[in-house]
Amino acid sequence: MTITVTNQKPAVLDALHTISCTGDYDPMPAIQKVLVDPLLEPLNPSAPASIVDGSGHDITGDVLDIIMRCLGETMDPAAEKNAKALLGQTMVSYDQGTPLPVGELFAVQAGQQNKWPAPSARVLYSAQNDVIPAAKGLLAGSADESAFFASVAYTYHPNTLGFWFQSSAAFDGFKIWLNQQVQTMAGANAMPADTLRLLNDFANLSLKGLTESLLLRKDDSDGNDEFSFARLVIRMLMTYVDQQRKAASTGAAALDTGIMPFTVGELFCPRSLVLVNVEAHARATAAKVTGEWNLINQSLASPVKVVSNAALSKLTSLPRAAARAAAMGARQQPGQPGSRSAQVKFRKAPPTKLDLFKDITRVLKRMGKVNKSQNVYRTTKTTFLKANRRNPDDFNKPGRITSVQYMPDLHVFIDTSGSISEENYQEAVLMLIRIAKKLNVNLYFNSFSHMLSQETLLKVENKSTRQIWQEFRKVPKVTGGTEFKQVWDYINASPVRKRRLSLMITDFEWSPPSRREEHPPNLYYAPCSAMDWKYMVRSAEAYANGMQHIDPSIRQKLLGMVL
Q1: 149 Cβ partners below 8 Å, 6+ apart?
Q2: pTM of structure
Q3: What angle do CA 239, 241, 242 make, to 5 degrees?
């Protein structure tokens, strides 16, 4: 379609908008103000701007529809061509021949402002040659924010909404300002409890790294209630950017915050938010910058999208955990049972006491030494630096030095729910006693079902198996349903317990929650004894599959079960 534009003042689009947090969520007025009104501003105020098609029909009122047709889930080549022809004639900086979609029109505008060619098979942008120099230029004041935004957009094309901060200190300045606004709104009882909780969590974020990213919505219809976190945090960021711009224009302060509107759809109804530290980008290596943005793109493409009203949902937490698991597998760390990728095979037969002993020992060694614990490790060596105890005057006979070191404590949680029989319980306890005696350590113990028993320290040293079993029988045994999360919460609630090696002995008959939770890093699992092994493997595999969004490396923590 041929488009002819007359009496129109070429526009520079500004992504700044402040959609209200009250009432129904309606981004259309903001879209009209940001995208359409600037394109229809007349060059001569005495007459309106005019846009007609090749047939002479007036399409001035169709500008919004022409652009919106390009923002659907699928590509419409005809709509793209028409919109690019319109934008090429109505914007100061826009190349209608760009291969980038209309959804990235702000990136194209920024690239044209800096006279950069559009990225293509022959024009490649990189962290080394573009992103890092642009970050340094923004910090030094030799380049404006458009160069940094274009460099990131042209190099990585993330489908998200970003805000850049000059440094972590600049982000802290925003948080101080945000806290003042939140207190005012909370005092007026205008803030839902869920939003207030999420804002408090937001205030604890740190932007010392390259980026911090959050999930805001599962889809366009989610998170649109009055004063929802998704609406309020974007409103506050936009308002703060507007204030910073006004202060910079008067010379009162330097501009240290800005918008990075990577795509039009995310600008007005963002499903995710990426906060960018410019200073960290300027100082980072090219590999680190590329890895960070590749991780963001990987997260955006992930089918798992969990947004919680109870806690902030970080965009990159799942792939970061998966990357850590893959890295551990690549390094083949000694002491990590099954130090390999999550693609592990289950044993075809139940583990022996020796198998479990070896796995637990490797984990303890990997965790390293601690300052004090019930797990005492003594070593003795001969040395001529110390006199022989029996012949102290004979310098030709070495003495002995005994050193004491401490391994992490062992804390055992035994599943005593209704699916665990008395025989299963007794076999699990006896197996545990034998392992504890072999390790020669005392251990902490809880039984759990849907309730958790009181913590008990069981003395193992210098006691027979029968004596230890009698001590176990004195510990109250709870029964009922199964709830793993209470064990997670119990461990996470105490820094001391988090440093222990926690071992849960269970039949794995529990379904993990759909939301993301904090899984204790030193919690491992072992199968109950005296149970059908095929049934146990099926339950463990189902549990491991359900835990992928919480801990992708969970298979590596199934002691005695994987090869």
Answers
A1: 106, 107, 110, 162, 164, 258, 260
A2: 0.62
A3: 65
Residue 166 neighbours by CB under 8 Å, 6+ apart: 138, 139, 254, 256, 257, 278, 279
Alpha helices (H) in 72-212, listed in sequence order: 77-90, 105-113, 132-140, 145-156, 168-187, 193-203
User: Residue 219: how many CB atoms within 10 A of its CB?
Assistant: 10
Label residues 17-38 b or e (16+ Cβ within 10 Å = b): bebebeeebebeebbeebbbeb
Best CA proximity match to 212, nearest among 240, 174, 184: 174
Closest among 56, 55, 45 to 7, alpha carbons compared: 45
Q: Are 64 and 51 in contact (CB under 8 A)?
A: no
pLDDT beyond 60 at 561: yes
Q: Looking up tokens 């330097």, which residue turns up?
A: 254
Q: Calculate the dihedral angle through the C-alpha atoms of 276, 281, 285, 289, rounding to the nearest 10 degrees.
A: 30
Residue 459's alpha-carbon distances to 204, 360, 440, 443, in angstroms, are 41, 19, 10, 7
**307-328, pLDDT tens digit by residue?**
777 778 888 776 776 666 656 5
d(CA 430, CA 470) in angstroms, rounded, equals 11
- Residue 413 makes CB contacts below 8 A (sequence gap 6+) with 445, 446, 447, 448, 487, 502, 503, 504, 505
Choose among 213, 230, 208: nearest CA to 221: 230
* Residue pair 9/43 in contact by the 8 Å Cβ criterion: yes
CB 136 within 8 A of CB 161: no
| pLDDT tens-digit readout, 378-393 | 667 777 778 888 888 8
> By the 8 A CB rule, do 272 and 160 touch?
yes
Half-sphere exposure of 385 (CA within 13 A, CB side): 4
The torsion angle over the Cα atoms of residues 261, 262, 266 and 272, rounded to 10 degrees, is: -100
User: Cα(349)–Cα(347) distance, rounded to whole angstroms?
Assistant: 5
Q: Are 509 and 535 in contact (CB under 8 A)?
A: no
Residue, of 116 and 561, whose pLDDT is higher: 116
Q: Where are the beta strands (DSSP E) in 495-541?
A: 501-506, 523-527
DSSP string over 179-241? HHHHHHHHHTT-S-HHHHHHHHHHHT----SSEEEEE--SSTTSS-STT-HHHHHHHHHHHHH
Q: In this structure, what token pair is assigned to residue 171?
A: 């982000």
- The span from the CA of 132 to the CA of 399, in Å, is 61
Confidence class for position 302, pLDDT limits 50, 70, 90: confident
φ/ψ region of 251 (left if φ > 0, alpha if ψ in -120 to 50, else beta) reads left
Q: Which of 200-214, 215-229, 431-445 has the least mean pLDDT? A: 431-445
Q: Count CB-CB contacts under 10 A for residue 11.
A: 19
Under the banding of pLDDT at 50, 70 and 90, the label for residue 303 is low
Enumerate the β-bridge partners of residue 273.
161, 214
Ramachandran angles phi, psi of 462, nearest 5°: 60, 30
Give exposure, 313-335, as e/b (b: 16+ Cβ within 10 Å): bebbbbbebbeebbebbeeeeee
